[in-house]
């Protein structure tokens, strides 16, 4: 956002690739993540009040290959968003943009930092579905590769509990790691993330996977803002009811501007039935919607900034078929100001999982 929060199974190949990379890459200083949990309540990861903002780069790790059900539109049409197609209706495969024989998935996106910005915090989120036509081992959930602009792949290990939930139809997870040092040194530009632990093939739930790199920055020429990053792992199903995530002790002046980003897994385009509202408690909550994210379908397999496709992604598929990383304007929710901000998620039809929430809000007018 600048937009400052503005084919068949390849299991053997994947195992060989992972082994080769393990020998080729130096170990990192990060410790292994302390276990996993099927549910992780959302909590604060980073907070600051400073002149600056939050930006992010994101992309998907899985896409369609061929239709697997009668009446399903061609894959090319689904990728372009020209026809409604869900990941469970296709044989799914990996996105792989690099020419490295040791990686089986990779995708890229630009992190757009303003000139003169100083990165104060950065975190990489990734996740996917391990069980589709093939089953991937969960032991690899906490490891990915990242290449900074002009750089080579570096191993990143999850540094906190990995969310990992198994059901009869899916085996999903989310993981994350602090990458502040790397992003502060490297700055803005195109980042590539590879070797996400995601499965290919076909199942009723379908394949999904993706990553989001979130960076908070300071810049003397920008407004004073509250910057907040929260994360967890919450599965939204019709039977669970609403989920509320509240940013406490967040003084918002009346008429403030602001934006919020949401990272979610397995949202299907066109299914509808889910909502996202934002409110301060001083006025009716605002139902989030824009040109790319309808009010009743905000989890619709998009990577967008304020209703427009996020720029400079490779590949730049408008329909990710199962991964959302969207930035929404939330100024209508801030008209009367307040002391906290509550995000309320619901669904009455499809299931999806939430992985991260980030926001910037004016601290004064």
From TrEMBL:
<protein>
    <recommendedName>
        <fullName>DUF3344 domain-containing protein</fullName>
    </recommendedName>
</protein>
<feature type="signal peptide">
    <location>
        <begin position="1"/>
        <end position="24"/>
    </location>
</feature>
<keyword id="KW-0732">Signal</keyword>
<feature type="region of interest" description="Disordered">
    <location>
        <begin position="288"/>
        <end position="312"/>
    </location>
</feature>
<dbReference type="InterPro" id="IPR006311">
    <property type="entry name" value="TAT_signal"/>
</dbReference>
């Amino acid at each position: 956002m600048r937009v400052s929060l503005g084919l068949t199974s390849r299991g053997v190949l994947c195992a060989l690739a992972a082994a080769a990379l393990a020998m080729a890459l130096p170990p990192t200083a990060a410790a292994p993540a302390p276990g996993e949990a099927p549910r992780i309540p959302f909590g604060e990861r980073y907070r600051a009040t400073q002149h600056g903002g939050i930006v992010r780069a994101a992309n998907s790790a899985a896409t369609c290959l061929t239709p697997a059900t009668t009446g399903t539109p061609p894959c090319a049409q689904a990728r372009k968003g020209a026809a409604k197609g869900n990941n469970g209706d296709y044989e799914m495969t990996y996105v792989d943009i690099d020419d490295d024989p040791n990686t089986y998935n990779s995708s890229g996106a630009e992190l757009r930092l303003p000139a003169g910005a100083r990165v104060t915090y950065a975190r990489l989120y990734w996740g996917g579905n391990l069980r589709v036509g093939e089953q991937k081992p969960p032991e690899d959930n906490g490891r990915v590769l990242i290449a900074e602009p002009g750089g080579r792949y570096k191993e990143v290990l999850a540094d906190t509990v990995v969310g990992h939930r198994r059901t009869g139809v899916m085996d999903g997870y989310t993981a994350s790691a602090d990458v502040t040092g790397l992003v502060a040194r490297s700055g803005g530009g195109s980042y590539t993330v590879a070797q996400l632990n995601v499965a290919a093939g076909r199942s009723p739930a379908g394949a999904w996977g993706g990553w989001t790199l979130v960076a908070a920055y300071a810049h003397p020429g920008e407004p004073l803002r509250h910057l907040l990053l929260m994360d967890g792992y919450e599965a939204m199903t019709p039977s669970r009811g609403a989920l509320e995530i509240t940013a406490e002790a967040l003084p918002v002046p009346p008429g403030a501007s602001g934006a919020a980003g949401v990272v979610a897994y397995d949202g299907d385009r066109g299914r509808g039935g889910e909502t996202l509202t934002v409110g301060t408690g001083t006025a009716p909550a605002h139902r989030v919607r824009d040109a790319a994210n309808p009010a009743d379908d905000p989890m619709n397999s998009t990577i967008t900034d304020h209703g427009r496709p996020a720029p400079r992604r490779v590949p730049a598929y408008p329909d990710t078929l199962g991964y959302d990383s969207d930035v929404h304007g939330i100024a209508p929710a801030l008209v009367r100001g307040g002391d906290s901000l509550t995000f309320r998620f619901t669904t009455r039809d499809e299931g999806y999982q939430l992985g991260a929430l980030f926001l910037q809000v004016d601290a004064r007018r």
